[in-house]
Amino acid sequence: MKHIQKALGCITAAALCGGSLVTLCPAEAALHAAAIGYADIPGEYIAACEWVWNNRIYDNENEDWMKDYATIYDQLIAGNGTIHYIIRWDSYQTLTYDQRQRLEVVLNDTLNQWNDCLEGYANWPFDDVTVKIVGWSVLDRNCMQDLHSDEVVYTGTMNSTMREDIINSGMAADAARIPAIEPTEPTDISRYAHWWDKNWSYNGSYDNRYDMFLEGIDGMIDMGGFGWHYGQYLSASSILGLINGTASQHILLHEMGHGFGFPDYYGGIGESDGLPPGDFPGGEGSVMQAGRAARITVFDTWFARYAWSRLSAQEGRFDLSTLSPSVPDEPIEPDLPSEGDLIGDINSDGTVDIADVSLLQAWLLSVSDTYLPNWKAGDIDGNGRLNAADITLLKRLLLTTGTPDTPDNPDSPEIPDTPTQFELIPATVSQFGKLTPSVGDCKMLSVFVEFSDTKYTRALPIETVRQELFGISSGNDVYGSIPDWYARASYGNLHIEGNAYYYTLPGKMTDYMTSDRNFEGFFMEVLSGLDAQINYADYDANNDGIIDCVSVGVPLDYATDEQKEYWWGCTGTWWSNPNFALDGKQLNKYIILDVSPYTDTMEYLKTVLTHEMGHSLGLPDYYLYEAGNDWEAYHGAAGYERMDESIGDFSSFSKLMFGWLRENEVQWYSGGTQSFTLKDSATQGSCLIVPISSGVGDLTAEYFLVEYVTHNGNNAEMNGWTNDSGIRIFHINAELIREDWSGLKNFKYEGFSQYYQGNDRFRITRLVNDGQGFYHTGDICTYGTNGFAGYDANGYQTVDTGYTIEIGALSDGAYTVTVRK
Question: What is each CA distance from 198 to 69, 143, 327, in whole angstroms?
Answer without folding.
Answer: 11, 36, 22
